Each structure stands twice: as structure tokens, then as C-alpha cells.
Amino acid sequence: MVSSTIQHNAPVGIFDSGVGGFSVLRHIQAQLPNEHLLYFADSGFAPYGDKPEEIVIERVLGIGAFLVSRGVKALVVACNTATVAAVRILRQHYPDMPIVGVEPGLKPGAAATRNGTVGVLATDRTLAGEKFLLLRDQIVEATGARFVLQPCVGLADQIEFGESGSPALDAMLERYVAPLLAQGADTLVLGCTHYPLVQASIERVIRRHTDADVTLIDTGDAVARQLARLLEAAGLLRRDDGEPPLLTGFTSASGAALSAAFASLLGQEPPVHEVAIGATLSDPEGPRI
């Protein structure tokens, strides 16, 4: 249960299996520039996409509890796999807290397509999730769009470990993107928060196969807008009080690696704390916001 005394200047907690949630974080920073933010990268347990659902649920609840213990006023599950597996359960644990998950982008994909064929790049776990399949069927019935699903085994790992722009990443993207284009997709849903981080590489693969315009759907913007709506409705938006917003990173793996990722992917250098993996997520040193 969340305390009713939570303050508007409390931080927002954002978490992902690794650095993929940076694609959501940057939209939140752009749309809510006054908010204090805590970012948890569960890189020591990545990827989530090949883990049993009960393990993903356990991690989500553990990280959620850790962030709540740090005094957050809202939670953002910046991971498609974690959202599909556990956002409903997380909301049951914290019914009074604004919680935003990452939708797989099917609705905007159906709205954007010109020829009715939408390719979806995502993890096995996301594509097999009951929530995802139900949403797909609802949108197909409502719009008539055809969704071509492409599981991207190993792609989040390549991005997580800094393989952006490498020949290995390029070959993997070729293997996953080209078949969708061959089946006529004019819109591609980036159904994992890691994928927008290599959007330029995806666009290069597209240009090798077609001169037609192909729309890429990144749902980070929609997540930030939903967070803003929920915070405003709850009276929890932080206003500009002259004090700069703070970003703090936490990771279950290497703090140095997360610091390097912040610098290379976002051009930022926030303080980063390592959090021990175990049955209970320990509380690292460092002041609370």
C-alpha cells in the first residue's frame, strides 16, 4: 500500500530488464522535465524475454518494492515483457499508485498503416503473452489490419551489451526485418523498449530492401503522455521550483556499465548505485531524493 502522504516532489520510478527503458526515459524527460527520476536496470537478470513468466513476475514485484521503499510516487514498467507478464499484479500490490506499462504499439500501428499490413518486432515472451494476443485480436476485428509477428531472439541482448552498429547487430536486424518487408509490411512496431535505441540501424536495413516509406512505431512517447495524465489527475506533477530535477540510476549488475550506457546512449552522467541480487533487493548507499 502506498502512503497517502506522498508528495508531488517525490521521484518517479522507472525500470526495465536493462537499458532498453532508456527509450522511455528520454520521452519522460522531454515531456516532464521537472520530475525527479529513479531508473533501475535489472541487467544482472537480463533478458526477461527468455525467462519463465513466474520469474519475471518475481523480479517485477521485487524491483517495484525496492523503488517504493525509495519513496517513489509512480512506477513506469519500461519493458514490454515485464508489462505483459506482471503489470496487472503490480497494480494489485499498489492500487493507489499511478502505474504505467508499455503497450505493444498495435493500435498506433494499425492507425499508421496504409496497406493494412503491420510487422511486429518483439521478444518471444511478449508475442506469446495472453494480453498481447487478446489486444491483437481486438484490433484485427476493429480495423481489419493484418499483423505479422516476428520474434527477435537475442536482439535485446545485442543492444544491451553495446553492440549498436556492429556487423553482428546488422546481420540480426537483416534476419528479422527483411521477412516483414517481404510480406508487405509498411509499418513496423518496435515491440521491445530496446529496439528504438537502434532505430538508425533498422532504417538502414529498410532502405536496403525498399524505397517505400516504412513507418516505425515507438511507444515511449505514449507512455510519457499517459504518465503525465496520471500524475496531473492525482495532483502529483512536480512544478519548477528552481531546483533542478535529479536522475539516479540503480542496477543489479555493473554500475560502471550502466554509467557508460547513460553516457553513450543519453549523454548523461547521473549517479549510479549497484543493488545486490538475491531474495531481497538490498538498499544501496546514497541519499534518497
Topology:
Elements: E1 12-16, H1 22-31, E2 37-41, H2 53-69, E3 74-77, H3 80-93, E4 99-101, H4 106-112, E5 117-122, H5 124-128, H6 130-143, E6 146-151, H7 155-160, H8 167-182, E7 187-190, H9 199-209, E8 215-217, H10 220-233, E9 247-251, H11 255-266, E10 272-274
CATH architecture label name of the largest domain: 3-Layer(aba) Sandwich
Judged by helices, strands and strand pairing, the structural class is alpha/beta
Give helix and strand order, one letter per element, not per position. Answer: EHEHEHEHEHHEHHEHEHEHE
How many helices does DSSP assign?
A: 11
- Ends apart, CA distance between termini: 20 Å
CATH topology of the largest domain: Rossmann fold
Mean pLDDT: 90
Regions with little confidence, pLDDT below 50 for 5+ residues: 279-289
* Major sheet characteristics: 6 strands, parallel
Radius of gyration: 19 Å
Oligomer: single chain
- Domain module tally: 2
**CATH first level of the largest domain: which class?**
Alpha Beta
Helix content, binned percent = 40-55%
Q: Biggest sheet, strands in spatial order?
A: 4-3-1-2-9-10
Describe the structure.
The protein is α/β, with parallel strands linked by helices and 289 residues long. It folds into 2 domains: 12-102 and 221-274, Rossmann fold; 106-218, Rossmann fold (3-Layer(aba) Sandwich), CATH 3.40.50. Helices cover 44% and strands 15% of the residues. The protein has 11 helices and 10 strands. The strands form 2 sheets. The protein has a 6-stranded parallel beta sheet, with helices on both faces. A 4-stranded parallel beta sheet has the order 6-5-7-8, with helices on both faces. Strand 9, helix 11 (255-266) and strand 10 form a beta-alpha-beta unit. Helix 1 crosses helix 10. The longest helix is centred in the N-terminal third of the chain and has 17 residues, at 53-69. The chain is globular, with a radius of gyration of 19 Å. The model is unreliable at 279-289 (pLDDT under 50).
